[in-house]
Amino acid sequence: MSSVLDIQSIRKDFPVLNREVNGKPLVYFDNAATSQTPKQVIQSIVDYYENYNANIHRGVHTLSQEATEAYEKARHTLQAHLNAARPEEVILTSGTTHSINIVASGFASLLKEGDELLVSAMEHHSNIVPWQMACEKSGAQLKVIPMNKKGELEMDVFDKLLSERTRLVFCNHVSNALGTINPIEEIIAKAHAVGAAVLIDGAQAAPHFKVDVQHLDVDFYTLSAHKVCGPTGIGLLYGKRSWLEKLPPYQGGGEMIAEVSFEKTTYADLPHKFEAGTPNIAGGIAFGAAIDYMNQIGFEAIAAYEEELLVYATDQLKQIEGIEFIGEAKNKASVISFNLRGIHPYDVGSILDKLGIAVRTGHHCAQPVMQHFNVPGTVRASFAFYNTKEEIDIFVEGVKTAQRMLS
Amino acid sequence: MSHKTIAEIQEEIIDEFSLFDDWMQRYEYMIELGKSLPLIDPQYKLDDYLIKGCQSKVWVFAEMNEDELKFTADSDAIITKGIIALLIRVFSGQKPQDIIDAELSFIDQIGLKEHLSPTRANGLTSMIRQIKLYAVAYQTQKNHE
């Protein structure tokens, strides 16, 4: 296998990989939807509930102090992981969708008629709908950066769409439906040149590579813990301090206030201004543990190994007559979207499930992408660093079985 | 015209499926059934007759033939077509009140339970609900005549 990673020993960290589905050993290739959880992360949750479960930021008692310390330590881990300038630039949220909604709802009050927002054509619904809502409220206009047949953004059109009216550009770092890695450095530099801010949805990038938000000079970056071996219901919003100070709070409640009276309430400083209510404390701590786990394995090794899996799987699948790949960008993460000619993706997914193979089928919450390629959906296989070439062999055989049965 | 009751047809289906040893044979049979589905007239293949769902499209149409309901359908996914073909076999040619009162036992027994999950295809549940809604509509109409 790989010379860099000891996959068999890594697999032992993931209890779920031992299970069987429909009498077959599980082959889990739905990592782009959610990653599996190593026992180190599970243990961090158990440890919290068994030893120091308490509400944070308020109690003077020992448990509360320990919980606060662990939660804030996780924030520092995430700050260091992204190389954010300050810990308060890391807002803990319930996930990427929540993160985007904080920014979109904040911008709704800053935008006015005549302003323009640019969105890429390959976004997840979570990076489209909040902005449509912001446009409805403010009268700003949403414009779309198109993509070509390979599933790459048309950067020359992007150049033309950019103007002094552009307030914000948002796109994903990696497309969930296609695997395309977008040229975000170029997008950020060009958007800044016209004075526009940039939000990058990093949900699909985070499992594959590490980003440096200061080096990128990105204004907002979002990610979800459950794509990087962490639990569901927790994620983060990175925002430059200057932007986060400018945006109004998203939700009112406890934790986010400085002083409250019936006449006037003043808001807390960052990051608490955007963290109303008791947070997902165990989730935050486990998010930190997950990032520690991934960093221990090493993102360079992860990226190299996943590239190996991607190339191997693509080569194997190419041999199948009638396979149509959806998204063939030059720069791709370890995601393969495809269809078998004349066969509905749902049928393929159903047969694969019977064979113990988990893939995603459908529109992947990116209906505009499906419309672009004129397909009802795709079968999507997405690989993580704990997958193996042997699993890819089982999967390719499964696809052939499905094709034989369904033709 | 079939005069078997809904319960009898279900028993028949359970018997047929009991001949298969594994899921692959069951699925192959369903795929075959899908190919023989009484297809909806193209003029009714409209959004009005579409059961909206997550993954595959399903159209179901019903018409009254004397006092019995006749169903036709289509789907863009073949396994879904097989499932709907089974439902139509059970319900087509039955009286609306019998369809409303019917308890479906065969789904569990032939190993299709996973298709009851709302995330699978259109959800067998919504197909059954749609068929029963047709029956309710025709029954109400009849009561008012």
Structure description:
The complex is a heterodimer of chains A (407) and B (145). Chain A has 14 helices and 17 strands. Chain A has 407 residues and is of the alpha/beta class. In chain A, the strands form five sheets. Chain A has a seven-stranded mixed sheet with strand order 4-10-9-8-7-5-6, sandwiched between helices. Chain A has a four-stranded antiparallel sheet with strand order 13-14-17-16, covered by helices on one side. A two-stranded antiparallel ribbon of chain A has the order 1-2. In chain A, strand 5, helix 5 (129-138) and strand 6 (141-145) form a beta-alpha-beta unit. In chain A, helix 3 (62-82) packs across helix 10 (281-297) and helix 4 (96-108) runs parallel beside helix 5. Chain A starts with 6 loop residues before the first helix and ends with a helix. Chain B has 145 residues and is α+β, with helices and mostly antiparallel strands. A three-stranded antiparallel sheet of chain B has the order 1-2-3. In chain B, helix 1 (6-18) crosses helix 3, helix 2 packs across helix 3 (78-91) and helix 3 packs parallel to helix 6 (124-144). In chain B, 39% of the residues are buried. The mean pLDDT of chain B is 87. The chains are: A alpha/beta (407), B alpha+beta (145). Chain A binds chain B through residues 22, 343-347, 350-351, 353-354, 361-362, 376-377, 405-406, and chain B through 23-24, 27-28, 31, 54-57, 76-80, 114, 120-121.
Show unreliable segments of chain B. Answer: none
Poorly predicted tracts of residues of chain A: none
Placed side by side, the strands forming the largest sheet of chain B appear as: 1-2-3
What characterizes the major β-sheet of chain A? 7 strands, mixed
Q: What portion of the residues of chain B fall into strands of 2 or more residues?
A: 5-15%
Quaternary structure? heterodimer
SS elements, strand count of chain B: 3
CATH names the topology of chain B as Sufe protein. Chain: A
Output mean pLDDT of chain B: 87
SS strand fraction of chain A? 15-25%
* Structural domain tally of chain A: 2
Q: List the total number of helices of chain B.
A: 6
Shape of chain B: globular
Structural class of chain A: alpha/beta
CATH class of the largest domain in chain A equals Alpha Beta
Terminal residue distance of chain A: 34 Å
Distance between the termini of chain B: 25 Å
The class by helix and strand makeup of chain B works out as: alpha+beta
How many distinct domains of chain B?
A: 1
